[in-house]
Protein backbone atom coordinates (compact mmCIF):
# COMPACT_ATOMS: atom_id res chain seq x y z
CA UNK A 1 0.00 0.00 0.00
CA UNK A 2 3.00 2.32 0.46
CA UNK A 3 2.93 3.71 -3.09
CA UNK A 4 -0.57 5.05 -2.48
CA UNK A 5 0.91 7.70 -0.22
CA UNK A 6 3.44 9.04 -2.73
CA UNK A 7 2.93 12.44 -4.31
CA UNK A 8 1.83 12.54 -7.93
CA UNK A 9 1.35 15.27 -10.52
CA UNK A 10 -2.04 15.53 -12.23
CA UNK A 11 -2.37 18.46 -14.62
CA UNK A 12 -0.80 21.41 -12.83
CA UNK A 13 -1.51 19.93 -9.39
CA UNK A 14 0.82 18.09 -7.05
CA UNK A 15 -1.39 15.64 -5.18
CA UNK A 16 -0.40 14.52 -1.68
CA UNK A 17 -1.37 10.89 -2.34
CA UNK A 18 -2.62 8.59 -5.09
CA UNK A 19 -6.13 8.06 -3.72
CA UNK A 20 -8.98 9.89 -5.42
CA UNK A 21 -12.60 10.27 -4.44
CA UNK A 22 -14.77 8.92 -7.26
CA UNK A 23 -17.80 10.98 -8.30
CA UNK A 24 -20.93 9.82 -6.51
CA UNK A 25 -24.47 11.16 -6.76
CA UNK A 26 -25.81 11.93 -3.28
CA UNK A 27 -29.01 13.93 -4.03
CA UNK A 28 -28.51 16.59 -1.36
CA UNK A 29 -28.64 19.76 -3.44
CA UNK A 30 -31.43 22.31 -3.16
CA UNK A 31 -34.36 22.21 -5.56
CA UNK A 32 -32.78 24.84 -7.84
CA UNK A 33 -29.52 22.88 -8.11
CA UNK A 34 -27.55 24.95 -5.61
CA UNK A 35 -25.35 22.76 -3.39
CA UNK A 36 -26.67 22.77 0.16
CA UNK A 37 -24.51 23.87 3.06
CA UNK A 38 -24.31 20.22 4.12
CA UNK A 39 -22.05 19.67 1.11
CA UNK A 40 -19.47 22.04 2.61
CA UNK A 41 -18.91 19.61 5.47
CA UNK A 42 -19.27 16.53 3.27
CA UNK A 43 -16.46 17.46 0.92
CA UNK A 44 -14.40 19.15 3.62
CA UNK A 45 -14.40 15.96 5.71
CA UNK A 46 -12.92 14.03 2.78
CA UNK A 47 -10.17 16.49 1.84
CA UNK A 48 -7.33 14.16 2.82
CA UNK A 49 -7.66 12.26 -0.47
CA UNK A 50 -5.27 13.39 -3.17
CA UNK A 51 -8.09 14.54 -5.45
CA UNK A 52 -11.82 14.89 -4.88
CA UNK A 53 -13.96 14.47 -7.98
CA UNK A 54 -17.37 15.86 -7.17
CA UNK A 55 -20.73 14.27 -7.71
CA UNK A 56 -22.13 14.61 -11.23
CA UNK A 57 -23.12 18.25 -11.74
CA UNK A 58 -25.44 19.26 -14.55
CA UNK A 59 -24.41 21.97 -17.02
CA UNK A 60 -28.01 22.89 -17.86
CA UNK A 61 -31.66 22.18 -17.12
CA UNK A 62 -31.62 19.45 -19.79
CA UNK A 63 -28.58 17.86 -18.17
CA UNK A 64 -30.34 16.92 -14.93
CA UNK A 65 -31.48 13.35 -14.47
CA UNK A 66 -32.01 12.70 -10.77
CA UNK A 67 -33.70 14.68 -7.99
CA UNK A 68 -31.65 17.21 -6.03
CA UNK A 69 -28.43 17.00 -8.01
CA UNK A 70 -26.30 20.15 -8.17
CA UNK A 71 -25.81 22.41 -11.16
CA UNK A 72 -22.98 24.70 -12.20
CA UNK A 73 -24.57 27.14 -14.65
CA UNK A 74 -26.11 29.97 -12.58
CA UNK A 75 -24.65 32.56 -10.21
CA UNK A 76 -26.41 30.89 -7.30
CA UNK A 77 -24.78 27.57 -8.21
CA UNK A 78 -21.37 29.25 -8.42
CA UNK A 79 -21.82 30.92 -5.03
CA UNK A 80 -22.79 27.58 -3.48
CA UNK A 81 -19.77 25.78 -4.93
CA UNK A 82 -17.46 28.60 -3.78
CA UNK A 83 -18.22 27.68 -0.18
CA UNK A 84 -17.31 24.05 -0.90
CA UNK A 85 -14.06 24.71 -2.76
CA UNK A 86 -13.00 27.20 -0.09
CA UNK A 87 -13.53 24.59 2.61
CA UNK A 88 -11.70 21.86 0.68
CA UNK A 89 -8.74 24.15 -0.02
CA UNK A 90 -8.59 25.29 3.61
CA UNK A 91 -8.21 21.60 4.54
CA UNK A 92 -5.39 21.15 2.01
CA UNK A 93 -7.49 19.31 -0.58
CA UNK A 94 -8.02 19.57 -4.34
CA UNK A 95 -11.37 19.35 -6.12
CA UNK A 96 -12.52 18.85 -9.70
CA UNK A 97 -16.22 19.34 -10.45
CA UNK A 98 -17.63 16.59 -12.65
CA UNK A 99 -19.77 17.88 -15.52
CA UNK A 100 -22.55 15.36 -16.12
CA UNK A 101 -25.21 15.70 -18.81
CA UNK A 102 -27.41 12.62 -18.42
CA UNK A 103 -29.08 12.78 -21.82
CA UNK A 104 -31.83 10.16 -21.95
CA UNK A 105 -31.32 8.96 -18.35
CA UNK A 106 -33.84 11.45 -17.03
CA UNK A 107 -37.49 12.05 -16.24
CA UNK A 108 -39.49 15.26 -16.67
CA UNK A 109 -40.51 15.06 -13.01
CA UNK A 110 -36.88 15.60 -11.99
CA UNK A 111 -36.00 18.61 -14.14
CA UNK A 112 -36.85 22.29 -13.55
CA UNK A 113 -38.50 22.69 -16.97
CA UNK A 114 -40.27 19.27 -16.98
CA UNK A 115 -39.43 18.69 -20.64
CA UNK A 116 -38.80 15.45 -22.51
CA UNK A 117 -35.16 14.28 -22.16
CA UNK A 118 -32.78 14.75 -25.09
CA UNK A 119 -30.41 12.17 -26.56
CA UNK A 120 -28.58 11.26 -29.79
CA UNK A 121 -31.58 9.20 -30.91
CA UNK A 122 -35.16 8.66 -29.76
CA UNK A 123 -34.36 5.37 -28.03
CA UNK A 124 -35.39 4.72 -24.42
CA UNK A 125 -32.93 2.91 -22.14
CA UNK A 126 -35.61 0.48 -20.90
CA UNK A 127 -34.88 1.36 -17.28
CA UNK A 128 -36.51 3.04 -14.32
CA UNK A 129 -35.42 6.16 -12.48
CA UNK A 130 -36.18 7.48 -9.00
CA UNK A 131 -38.55 10.45 -8.73
CA UNK A 132 -40.30 12.18 -5.82
CA UNK A 133 -43.24 9.85 -6.49
CA UNK A 134 -41.07 6.73 -6.51
CA UNK A 135 -39.59 4.68 -9.34
CA UNK A 136 -40.87 5.48 -12.84
CA UNK A 137 -40.08 4.21 -16.32
CA UNK A 138 -37.68 6.48 -18.18
CA UNK A 139 -39.55 7.94 -21.15
CA UNK A 140 -38.37 7.87 -24.75
CA UNK A 141 -36.09 10.88 -25.31
CA UNK A 142 -36.24 13.42 -28.11
CA UNK A 143 -33.46 13.08 -30.68
CA UNK A 144 -31.27 16.17 -30.81
CA UNK A 145 -31.30 18.04 -34.10
CA UNK A 146 -27.84 18.41 -35.59
CA UNK A 147 -27.98 22.19 -35.23
CA UNK A 148 -28.73 21.79 -31.51
CA UNK A 149 -25.55 19.86 -30.77
CA UNK A 150 -23.27 22.94 -30.74
CA UNK A 151 -25.53 24.42 -28.07
CA UNK A 152 -25.07 21.32 -25.89
CA UNK A 153 -21.30 21.52 -26.39
CA UNK A 154 -21.40 25.17 -25.37
CA UNK A 155 -23.24 24.22 -22.17
CA UNK A 156 -20.17 22.20 -21.16
CA UNK A 157 -17.94 25.16 -22.00
CA UNK A 158 -20.01 27.60 -19.93
CA UNK A 159 -20.25 25.15 -17.03
CA UNK A 160 -16.47 24.63 -17.05
CA UNK A 161 -15.92 28.38 -16.88
CA UNK A 162 -18.40 28.59 -14.01
CA UNK A 163 -16.61 25.77 -12.15
CA UNK A 164 -13.31 27.64 -12.28
CA UNK A 165 -15.06 30.83 -11.17
CA UNK A 166 -16.40 28.82 -8.24
CA UNK A 167 -12.84 27.95 -7.22
CA UNK A 168 -12.62 24.39 -8.52
CA UNK A 169 -9.17 23.16 -9.50
CA UNK A 170 -10.62 21.75 -12.71
CA UNK A 171 -13.48 19.76 -14.21
CA UNK A 172 -14.03 16.16 -15.18
CA UNK A 173 -16.15 15.55 -18.28
CA UNK A 174 -18.44 12.58 -17.61
CA UNK A 175 -18.27 10.27 -20.62
CA UNK A 176 -19.22 7.10 -18.76
CA UNK A 177 -22.09 5.21 -17.08
CA UNK A 178 -24.57 5.48 -19.94
CA UNK A 179 -25.00 9.25 -19.88
CA UNK A 180 -25.09 11.62 -22.87
CA UNK A 181 -21.51 11.29 -24.11
CA UNK A 182 -21.56 7.50 -23.87
CA UNK A 183 -24.94 7.50 -25.60
CA UNK A 184 -23.23 9.10 -28.60
CA UNK A 185 -20.51 6.43 -28.42
CA UNK A 186 -22.93 3.51 -28.18
CA UNK A 187 -24.20 1.65 -31.23
CA UNK A 188 -27.50 0.79 -29.58
CA UNK A 189 -28.21 4.34 -28.33
CA UNK A 190 -26.98 6.25 -31.37
CA UNK A 191 -28.73 5.54 -34.68
CA UNK A 192 -27.92 8.92 -36.21
CA UNK A 193 -27.28 9.27 -39.93
CA UNK A 194 -25.37 12.57 -39.75
CA UNK A 195 -21.82 13.53 -38.71
CA UNK A 196 -22.46 12.32 -35.14
CA UNK A 197 -23.50 8.74 -35.90
CA UNK A 198 -22.47 5.62 -37.76
CA UNK A 199 -18.69 5.32 -37.98
CA UNK A 200 -16.32 5.23 -35.03
CA UNK A 201 -15.07 8.69 -35.96
CA UNK A 202 -18.59 10.09 -36.08
CA UNK A 203 -19.75 8.51 -32.82
CA UNK A 204 -16.61 9.83 -31.12
CA UNK A 205 -17.04 13.34 -32.51
CA UNK A 206 -19.29 14.67 -29.74
CA UNK A 207 -16.93 13.59 -26.95
CA UNK A 208 -13.93 15.12 -28.71
CA UNK A 209 -15.73 18.37 -29.46
CA UNK A 210 -16.88 18.70 -25.84
CA UNK A 211 -13.31 18.15 -24.64
CA UNK A 212 -11.92 20.71 -27.10
CA UNK A 213 -14.51 23.29 -26.03
CA UNK A 214 -13.67 22.82 -22.35
CA UNK A 215 -9.93 22.96 -23.03
CA UNK A 216 -10.38 26.15 -25.05
CA UNK A 217 -12.23 27.69 -22.11
CA UNK A 218 -10.21 26.63 -19.04
CA UNK A 219 -7.05 24.92 -20.29
CA UNK A 220 -6.03 21.30 -20.77
CA UNK A 221 -4.29 21.19 -17.39
CA UNK A 222 -7.67 21.74 -15.70
CA UNK A 223 -9.62 19.23 -17.79
CA UNK A 224 -10.12 15.51 -17.15
CA UNK A 225 -12.47 13.03 -18.80
CA UNK A 226 -14.01 9.77 -17.63
CA UNK A 227 -14.95 6.67 -19.64
CA UNK A 228 -16.32 3.22 -18.84
CA UNK A 229 -15.21 1.02 -21.76
CA UNK A 230 -17.41 -2.05 -22.08
CA UNK A 231 -19.74 -0.75 -19.39
CA UNK A 232 -23.44 -1.50 -19.86
CA UNK A 233 -25.04 0.77 -17.26
CA UNK A 234 -28.31 2.44 -18.23
CA UNK A 235 -28.94 0.20 -21.22
CA UNK A 236 -25.69 0.88 -23.08
CA UNK A 237 -24.24 -1.55 -25.63
CA UNK A 238 -21.31 -0.02 -27.46
CA UNK A 239 -21.07 -2.85 -29.97
CA UNK A 240 -18.35 -5.10 -31.36
CA UNK A 241 -16.17 -2.14 -32.32
CA UNK A 242 -15.98 -1.04 -28.68
CA UNK A 243 -12.24 -1.50 -28.18
CA UNK A 244 -11.34 -0.11 -31.60
CA UNK A 245 -13.50 2.95 -30.84
CA UNK A 246 -11.75 3.65 -27.55
CA UNK A 247 -8.36 3.23 -29.22
CA UNK A 248 -9.34 5.95 -31.66
CA UNK A 249 -11.01 8.15 -29.04
CA UNK A 250 -8.17 7.99 -26.52
CA UNK A 251 -5.56 8.58 -29.22
CA UNK A 252 -7.39 11.70 -30.39
CA UNK A 253 -7.96 13.02 -26.86
CA UNK A 254 -4.33 12.37 -25.98
CA UNK A 255 -3.39 15.07 -28.50
CA UNK A 256 -5.17 17.62 -26.29
CA UNK A 257 -2.84 16.86 -23.33
CA UNK A 258 -5.68 16.75 -20.81
CA UNK A 259 -4.88 16.68 -17.10
CA UNK A 260 -6.04 13.10 -16.84
CA UNK A 261 -8.06 10.20 -18.20
CA UNK A 262 -10.27 8.42 -15.66
CA UNK A 263 -11.31 4.90 -16.66
CA UNK A 264 -13.45 2.23 -15.07
CA UNK A 265 -11.66 -1.12 -15.14
CA UNK A 266 -14.09 -4.03 -15.51
CA UNK A 267 -11.32 -6.62 -15.70
CA UNK A 268 -10.06 -6.46 -19.29
CA UNK A 269 -6.41 -6.29 -18.23
CA UNK A 270 -4.84 -6.39 -21.73
CA UNK A 271 -6.97 -3.43 -22.82
CA UNK A 272 -6.19 -1.49 -19.64
CA UNK A 273 -2.48 -1.95 -20.39
CA UNK A 274 -3.08 -0.73 -23.91
CA UNK A 275 -4.84 2.37 -22.58
CA UNK A 276 -1.83 3.02 -20.36
CA UNK A 277 0.40 2.93 -23.44
CA UNK A 278 -1.91 5.13 -25.52
CA UNK A 279 -2.31 7.82 -22.85
CA UNK A 280 0.60 10.18 -22.12
CA UNK A 281 -0.78 12.14 -19.17
CA UNK A 282 -1.99 11.08 -15.72
CA UNK A 283 -4.26 8.03 -15.61
CA UNK A 284 -6.91 7.50 -12.92
CA UNK A 285 -8.57 4.12 -12.53
CA UNK A 286 -11.66 2.88 -10.73
CA UNK A 287 -12.09 -0.87 -10.34
CA UNK A 288 -15.68 -1.70 -9.23
CA UNK A 289 -15.93 -4.46 -6.64
CA UNK A 290 -12.23 -4.45 -5.87
CA UNK A 291 -11.46 -5.96 -2.44
CA UNK A 292 -9.74 -3.61 -0.04
CA UNK A 293 -6.54 -5.67 0.09
CA UNK A 294 -6.13 -5.01 -3.65
CA UNK A 295 -6.58 -1.26 -3.38
CA UNK A 296 -3.00 -0.47 -4.43
CA UNK A 297 -2.71 -3.25 -7.03
CA UNK A 298 -3.00 -1.04 -10.11
CA UNK A 299 -0.62 1.57 -8.70
CA UNK A 300 1.88 -1.11 -7.67
CA UNK A 301 1.82 -2.55 -11.21
CA UNK A 302 2.18 0.98 -12.64
CA UNK A 303 -1.06 0.45 -14.53
CA UNK A 304 -2.42 3.72 -13.14
CA UNK A 305 -1.25 6.84 -11.31
CA UNK A 306 -4.27 7.28 -9.03
CA UNK A 307 -6.92 4.84 -7.79
CA UNK A 308 -10.37 6.28 -7.18
CA UNK A 309 -12.56 5.09 -4.33
CA UNK A 310 -16.33 5.35 -4.12
CA UNK A 311 -18.52 3.76 -1.46
CA UNK A 312 -15.74 3.36 1.12
CA UNK A 313 -15.41 7.15 1.19
CA UNK A 314 -19.11 7.62 1.89
CA UNK A 315 -18.84 5.96 5.30
CA UNK A 316 -15.17 6.68 6.04
CA UNK A 317 -14.42 10.37 5.65
CA UNK A 318 -10.90 9.72 6.98
CA UNK A 319 -10.34 6.81 4.58
CA UNK A 320 -6.73 7.79 3.84
CA UNK A 321 -5.78 7.80 7.52
CA UNK A 322 -7.55 4.47 8.13
CA UNK A 323 -5.65 2.83 5.28
CA UNK A 324 -2.35 4.22 6.54
CA UNK A 325 -2.98 2.85 10.03
CA UNK A 326 -4.58 -0.38 8.79
CA UNK A 327 -7.69 0.45 10.80
CA UNK A 328 -11.09 -1.13 10.21
CA UNK A 329 -13.62 0.57 7.95
CA UNK A 330 -17.19 1.59 8.75
CA UNK A 331 -19.83 -0.09 6.59
CA UNK A 332 -22.13 2.34 4.74
CA UNK A 333 -25.84 2.55 5.44
CA UNK A 334 -27.31 2.06 1.96
CA UNK A 335 -30.72 3.27 3.15
CA UNK A 336 -29.37 6.81 3.58
CA UNK A 337 -27.19 7.15 0.47
CA UNK A 338 -29.80 9.24 -1.38
CA UNK A 339 -32.17 10.00 1.47
CA UNK A 340 -31.42 13.69 1.87
CA UNK A 341 -30.36 15.42 5.07
CA UNK A 342 -27.32 14.95 7.28
CA UNK A 343 -27.90 11.29 8.17
CA UNK A 344 -25.61 9.05 6.16
CA UNK A 345 -23.95 12.12 4.65
CA UNK A 346 -21.92 14.09 7.18
CA UNK A 347 -22.48 12.07 10.38
CA UNK A 348 -20.10 9.16 9.76
CA UNK A 349 -17.42 9.28 12.48
CA UNK A 350 -13.70 9.59 11.97
CA UNK A 351 -11.29 7.53 14.05
CA UNK A 352 -11.13 8.64 17.65
What is the approximate shape?
Answer: globular
Q: Give the radius of gyration.
A: 19 Å
Strand order of the largest sheet: 3-4-5-10-11-12-13-14
Under CATH, the topology is which? TIM Barrel
Low-confidence stretches: none
Structural class: alpha/beta
Sheet-strand content, in percent, reads 15-25%
Count of DSSP strands: 14
By CATH, the superfamily comes out as Aldolase class I
Overview of this protein structure:
There is one protein chain. The protein has ten helices and 14 strands. It has a single domain, classed as TIM Barrel (Alpha-Beta Barrel). Helix 1 runs parallel beside helix 2, helix 3 runs parallel beside helix 5 (200-218) and helix 6 (242-254) runs parallel beside helix 7. The longest helix has 19 residues, at 200-218. The radius of gyration is 19 Å and the shape is globular. The chain has 352 residues and is of the alpha/beta class. Helices cover 30% and strands 16% of the residues. An eight-stranded parallel beta barrel has the order 3-4-5-10-11-12-13-14. Pfam families: Oxidored_FMN (PF00724). Keywords: Oxidoreductase, Plasmid. GO terms for molecular function: FMN binding; oxidoreductase activity, acting on the CH-CH group of donors, NAD or NADP as acceptor.
Summarize the structure.
This protein is 30% helix and 16% strand.
Which characteristics define this entry?
single chain; 352 residues; alpha/beta; TIM Barrel; two-stranded antiparallel sheet; 30% helix
